[in-house]
Write a structure and sequence with these properties.
Length: 133
């Protein structure tokens, strides 16, 4: 619970720094739109739903890969990291499930998170799900 609160605090702090650029952002890039895409709520038919869900899985996989690289570059000490991701063992779809689950919790606890950019939400979701010990 404390980790979730810290991650949510981090997402709120990061979002306030980006508030000036909010109007410039793509409305499809919000946390709420990302969750809807991942859960197949976009598109008029089953094929469109599948395309949106696959784009979610691929975005998530790329984000996690980038986070792993950054994790290695930022610090060799886990205390300086916001998340300590496992090196292996999770499929792309499992990563998607973890991230979307955390984002849904954030949106329930603080509805304004819905309008934040997905990259902020995903970073906070990873920090909440995989805290450094």
């Amino acid at each position: 619970m404390k980790t979730t609160a810290l991650a949510l605090s981090a997402v709120l702090s990061a979002a306030s720094l980006m508030a000036a650029d909010k109007e410039k952002e793509d409305p499809q890039a919000t946390v709420a739109a990302f969750v809807d895409q991942c859960e197949g709520r976009y598109g008029a038919d089953a094929a469109a739903h599948t395309v949106w869900q696959m784009s979610c899985v691929m975005y998530t996989a790329g984000f996690v890969d980038g986070a792993r690289v950054a994790q290695g570059l930022w610090s060799t000490q886990s205390t300086a990291r916001s998340a300590c991701l496992p090196d292996e063992g999770l499929s792309n779809d499992e990563w998607r499930g973890i991230i979307v689950g955390q984002l849904r919790l954030f949106m329930v606890k603080n509805p304004e998170v819905r309008t934040y950019h997905k990259r902020i939400g995903i970073a906070a979701a990873l920090a909440s799900a995989f805290p450094c010990k």
